[in-house]
Amino acid sequence: MNSLRVYAYSVHPQRTADSETAPYGGGIAINTKIRAALQEASTQSTIQRPIAVDLQVDPVTRTSEIRNLMLDFAFGTRTKADTAGRKFAADLSQAMDRRSYPCLFVVAASGEADQRSLTMWTFPKEEAFQFRGAAERPSIELLSDIFSRTSRLRKAALFEGKNRKTDFIGGKVFDFQTSSQSREVADFWIVRFLHGVLAVHGPTGTRHLARCLREAYEKTEGLDAKEQIYSAVIAVRQSRRPRWSLREFANQYLTGAAREAFVRAAPNQETLDSSFDFDRKTFDDTLNFRIFGLNTGVFVSSPLGEVGKSVTLSGTTEKVLRCEGTVVEEHLRTRHA
């Protein structure tokens, strides 16, 4: 697509600031170096598997303020783009608090015919030394007005489509901090600035996670793989991390055959890479028991929390189960529960 316009702003956190520092900037000339740098930033975001998000829109009119600004910037006149760019920067500053660094905010539109692509980036402000290697007297200078293109604090968002009601509602977000233990940090870019929600909602994503774990457990044969999957179940229930994707879960907790079986169990590639808020109640409701089949024909069904307590396993090549507790009820059935 052809580059249509690029705007850049210096933005400082305003949400909890003691004094106001208004964003400043505007439209910039698009030269070869700028175009190449933004293309590289887009490529890096794509490699990092962006998060699918949906804007929160009015259910009847299918509109939202930020979506209207996107359409003005991508399709509107220069005057509308100027207004939209300033509003983007002002909203971003109000979404940032003292945990955020001042940043360079860049918004760009490209397109062909009636198709448009709008991308937004934040590049955190940093300090660096500039070295001058003069033959007799080298020197260094502290540069403070620079912005990092590689910082893990950088963020991006991409929305594409035509100027119609069905487009610019769903997009992709790039954010290293979306899995932060702090909900405020995790939600800064997606919720406070974009007014968006994850495309895969918490209970749905959590059910996918539980079902993938169950299928992986059933289809792996080695004891080590099964123990690894069980350990992953316990770990994610105790984790303070609020947000996951199936792939992130697999990369953190599983290896070898266990990981392969888990990844194969995902419904599709998009689901594998979509982030969701982990919902422990949904997880427990979907996957709350571990069932053991013994060589005697006995089956033992145990709540996850009792394994290692009233239900214990010992042995290496062959697992031996021991269970102890007071019988409070019993039933006769035609088959195992």
Can you put this structure into words, describing what you see?
By secondary structure, the protein is of the alpha+beta class. It has three domains: 2-198, no CATH class; 200-287, no CATH class; 288-337, no CATH class. The protein is built from ten helices and 15 strands. The protein has helices at 32-47, 65-75, 78-95, 183-193, 202-219, 223-238, 246-253, 256-264, 269-273, 280-286; strands spanning 2-11, 24-28, 51-55, 103-112, 115-132, 139-147, 155-161, 170-175, 196-198, 243-244, 276-277, 289-293, 299-303, 311-314, 320-323. Strands 1, 2, 3, 4, 5, 6, 7, 8 and 9 form a nine-stranded antiparallel β-sheet that branches. It has a two-stranded antiparallel sheet with strand order 10-11. Helix 3 runs antiparallel to helix 4 (183-193), helix 5 runs antiparallel to helix 6 and helix 6 (223-238) packs across helix 8 (256-264). The radius of gyration is 26 Å and the shape is elongated. It starts with a strand and ends in a 14-residue tail after the last strand.
